[in-house]
Structure formats: structure tokens, C-alpha cells
Amino acid sequence: MDAKTPPQLKYAPRAAERPSAAEAEAAVRTLIAYAGDDPDREGLLETPARVAKAYREFYSGYEEDPAAILDRVFDEAGGYDDFVLLRDIPFHSHCEHHMVPFIGKAHIAYLPNGGVVGLSKLARLVDAYARRLQMQERLTQQIADAIEIGLAPHGVAVLIEAEHHCVSMRGARKSGVSTVTTSFKGVFKTDPAERARFLQLVEGRR
Ligand SMILES: Nc1nc2c(ncn2[C@@H]2O[C@H](COP(=O)(O)OP(=O)(O)OP(=O)(O)O)[C@@H](O)[C@H]2O)c(=O)[nH]1
Ligand SMILES: [Zn+2]
């Protein structure tokens, strides 16, 4: 990656080359045995192939180009001059430390600078970054950066709340802990009233 590479792509490394499905399945067999079960028993015979296939779905974000998701901007928004907020965008990700799910919701607002983007594209953007090995902080930052670069809006606000299964199922074993991360850019960073209005709209309905 050189200095000209857009920041959102710097945040999106891909493996130079992937192992084959057969190699991935062999690795899953090893993990089944490591868990203490017999990969040759009938109920588990097809599991390595299923897991390898599921991996392509869990980690499909590596196939996505966030810049391409936001490249269609609608210029005709009828003079709309307030922020656009998508609340409660559900996502499933995997923590890069344990490869265990963290599951939650993203709330995204941006103040358009002329053009607006199709609403579904913001939800797709969340998945493009969530369906990778992630940290919640980085996921939050990447979404905000991609919107800032892709739409050049007057401001961006991203709030993510999630439960990390590596904290609930193992390790500390604390269920129901919600981790909240935020990224504010432009007016949401400089204007406390705009930030407060965003937070009120996100929080006020719980
Ligand atoms: N900051 C941050 N930490 C995370 C995230 N997902 C998982 N973690 C934490 O990453 C840390 C990894 O800590 P280590 O001490 O290297 O690993 P560990 O021995 O498995 O840690 P424990 O989970 O405390 O048992 C743990 O504290 C996890 O809770 C995330 O998205 N952001
Ligand atoms: Zn973890």
C-alpha cells in the first residue's frame, strides 16, 4: 500500500493468497480433534465442508470494496438540510483476538453536503467492514472514515453497541456487557449541540 491508497483500503487488508477449500477443511478436522471429538464420526463428516463454507460468509467483507458501495450519490434531495440517521443497523462480526462473534447494532448519521446516498448502502457498508476479523474500535472508525471519504459530508457520527462473546462465553464470562464506541467527524465533532441531538435520537428510544 502506498501513500496514495485511500485510508479505507489501508484498513482493509486481504490475504495475498487463500488456501484451498480442502486445506481449510483439513484445518477444521484438526480443530474438531483438538476440541476432543472424532472428526470421522458420522455426524461430523460434513462439518469441515460446512465450516469452510460458513467462513466465506462470515468473512465475506474481504470481497467488498467500501468505496464502490458509496459511489452512487443522489444530488436531488429537495433541499433537505438536516442530518440523515440510520438507527439500529444490526451486524455480526468476529473479534480478531479469539475469532468469536461480537454482535450488535450500529447507528450512523451524516449531514449531507449536497448529495445523499441510498439508505441501504450505509447498511451494506457496515457489513463490508463487520464481516472481517475486527476490533469494535476499528470497525467504528472505518465506517466513519469511509463515509467521510466517500460522501465528503459536513459531518459523520457513528455509534456502535455490541456484546462480545469472547467476554461472555469464555475468559471473564460476563454476559450482558454492552461495549459502546463512537466516532464523530465534522459538525458532530465541533458542535456539541449536533452531537447531543444525534445521541438523543439514538439513546432516547431505548
Ligand atoms: N479493545 C478491544 N478489545 C477486544 C475486542 N474484542 C476482544 N477484545 C479483548 O481483547 C483482549 C485480548 O486479551 P489477551 O490478554 O491477549 O487475551 P486473553 O488471555 O484471551 O484475554 P481474556 O479475554 O481476558 O481471557 C481481551 O481483553 C478481549 O476482551 C475489541 O473489539 N476491542
Ligand atoms: Zn475476543
UniProtKB/TrEMBL annotation:
Its EC number is 3.5.4.16. Pathway: Cofactor biosynthesis; 7,8-dihydroneopterin triphosphate biosynthesis; 7,8-dihydroneopterin triphosphate from GTP: step 1/1. SUPFAM superfamilies: Tetrahydrobiopterin biosynthesis enzymes-like (SSF55620). Residues 25-202 form the GTP cyclohydrolase I domain. HAMAP family: FolE (MF_00223). Belongs to the GTP cyclohydrolase I family. NCBIfam families: folE, PRK09347.1-2, PRK09347.1-3. This is GTP cyclohydrolase 1. It comes from Kaistia soli DSM 19436. The gene is folE.
